[in-house]
Design brief:
Length: 544
């Protein structure tokens, strides 16, 4: 295909690297199905450091993804959070993906940092530790101190990263189009939706100004609370490739020795963390999309600090209402309510309703009368969706991943933690506002505005219809799929009948008369007409 050739020419070196890595790790089926095996010679073959013949297919794919870099790591992490799309064998392996990589040397980072700051780091910072605190596939983080004495962290994008990621996204977008066209059975994996999610997340992380804005959005939610801490952004030094923000002193929630030594009330902190996350998601509709132990810090006074806002999730008011209904259906053990919410979320699908009804009831039976582990519950819920060929909307999949992660963190703090119980006050508050007089009046106003818009056009439409009825100008258009094909078939059949009649008439009536005249020319003409007519009929028959 010309289009494929163009894509390969534009990013042929990167395409060759991708093909070589996949072949090296034994992921040859993907390479063969996409038809890119021939470009592997464009890149230096990488020899895996493990014997891939001893690895399962998910293990090979995970190792290959790590070797391919940040774009593919991010895609793998997205898929790891989708038990509604992949089986446990795949999600459990992809969950092992990590973006921690060998740090780039300070000599390679410094020129870019100086260009972005407009000065040498020593001119801006009183102290700057050139050994990174952390090194990920997207950025490296350093600890520093401003001239004013404030402790800060300096996040710097890895040099040359944008060019590689943009090439990867172009190639993946092209591969997605091929997959959709050639293998419709992959449609349930929502390849276009996954690509939009991937591209949006990566472009967001490539612009550290976006992360700074996300941080301030979350900070505004907790502006009146001193027990939830969000780092301050130093905008004068922040740009697309550099982020300077307040350094937060805290203890990871899974470091029990330090938590106990600091006299932290872990049960209280777990409740506060849950309240903060649910307040973000259910009340404000904006939440931290990856609240793992590295992004949550426990601080003195049982306070909680959130860091790293490269990606945040957003939920519409409608989605938040649906989530409340889901939680309500689970708490009431209402299988019909559970099924209704699931169908509402995946309305474009056409599932087997009898099977889905049985699955919903089985789900309720599995979890009825037991202490609810919210992480296990949501994972089981998404597995039920996959088994019924349903896929969750992306925004909900992000939220569920966040909830499962937060539930795991809170259980580190309090092994007896029950997220449903902890969520009670927030859920009740949200339900109360949803169904209060003010909340209902807002919905009525919204519905009324829509009805008023439609009603205001109704008299004009009725008047126009009456006028056209009087004039006899009302027409009805009926579209029958395949009518063009049917019309062509009728036309061909009519042509065959007409030719057959002419040939038959000539053979039975005209030919004997020509023969009686004894003129060889008439006999020859008659034979030619019959042969041409019969040949035409044969051709028409073959071109049905």
């Amino acid at each position: 295909m010309l289009k494929t050739a163009f894509v390969a020419a534009r990013d042929r070196q990167r395409l060759g690297e991708i093909a070589a890595v996949l072949i090296g790790y034994g992921v040859t089926k993907v390479v063969e199905r996409l038809g890119i095996a021939h470009v592997a010679r464009l890149a230096k073959r990488r020899t895996p450091q493990v014997d891939v013949t001893r690895l399962s297919q998910p293990q090979r794919v995970r190792r290959a993804i790590e070797a391919l870099g940040p774009t593919f790591i991010k895609l793998g992490q997205i898929l790891a959070s989708r038990p509604d799309l992949l089986t446990p064998e795949w999600t459990e392996e992809l969950e092992k993906l990590h973006s921690q990589v060998r740090p780039i040397s300070w000599e390679k980072i410094r020129p870019q940092l100086e260009a972005d700051l407009g000065a040498a780091p020593s001119d801006i910072f009183a102290e700057f530790d050139t050994v990174p605190l952390a090194a990920a596939s997207i950025a490296q983080v350093y600890r520093a101190r401003l001239m004013s004495g404030e402790e800060v962290v300096v996040k710097v994008l890895r040099p040359g990263l944008r060019k590689i990621i943009e090439a990867d996204l172009r190639l993946l977008a092209h591969a997605t189009r091929i997959v959709v066209e050639e293998w419709p059975e992959f449609g349930r994996y929502q390849p276009h939706e996954q690509m939009r999610h991937l591209a949006g997340g990566l472009y967001g992380e490539l612009d550290l100004v976006n992360e700074a804005r996300n941080c301030e959005t979350i900070a505004a939610i907790f502006a009146d609370r001193d027990d939830i801490v969000i780092p301050k952004i130093h905008w004068e030094w922040t740009s697309e490739r550099v982020l300077v923000q307040e350094f937060i002193h805290g203890i990871p929630p899974n470091d029990h020795v330090r938590l106990d030594a600091a006299g932290i009330d872990k049960v209280k902190v777990a409740q506060k963390g849950t309240d903060a996350f649910l307040n973000m998601a259910l009340i404000e509709g904006v939440f931290h999309a990856d609240p793992h132990p590295g992004n949550m810090l426990v601080m003195p006074g049982n306070r909680i600090g959130f860091i790293d806002f490269g990606i945040i999730g957003r939920l519409s008011e409608r989605r938040r209402t649906q989530l409340l209904m889901l939680i309500g259906a689970m708490l009431k053990e209402d299988s019909d309510g559970l099924m209704a919410v699931l169908l509402d979320w995946t309305g474009s699908s056409n599932p087997d309703l009898t099977k889905l009804e049985a699955s919903s009831q089985a789900f309720i039976n599995r979890h009825a009368g037991s202490v609810l582990n919210f992480g296990d519950l949501l994972t089981d819920f998404m597995t039920m969706a996959r088994e019924n060929d349903l896929a969750m909307p992306t925004d909900l999949a992000i939220l569920f991943k966040g909830l499962v992660t937060a539930d795991g963190v809170m259980r580190h703090l309090d092994p007896k933690f029950d997220l449903f119980t902890a969520a009670g006050p927030t859920v009740k508050s949200k339900l109360a506002s949803q169904f209060s007089i003010k909340g209902i009046s807002r919905k009525v106003e919204a519905v009324g505005a829509g009805l008023f818009g439609a009603a205001s056009e109704l008299p004009t439409l009725i008047h126009l219809m009456l006028v056209r009825l009087k004039q006899g100008r009302v027409t009805v258009e009926i579209e029958v799929k395949g009518i063009d094909k049917l019309t062509r078939g009728i036309e061909r059949a009519a042509a065959r009948v007409a030719v057959a009649l002419i040939v038959a008439a000539f053979a039975t009536q005209l030919a004997p008369r020509f023969m009686d005249l004894g003129t060889p020319a008439f006999i020859t003409v008659g034979m030619m007409v019959c042969v041409i007519g019969i040949g035409w009929l044969v051709l028409l028959g073959r071109n049905k």
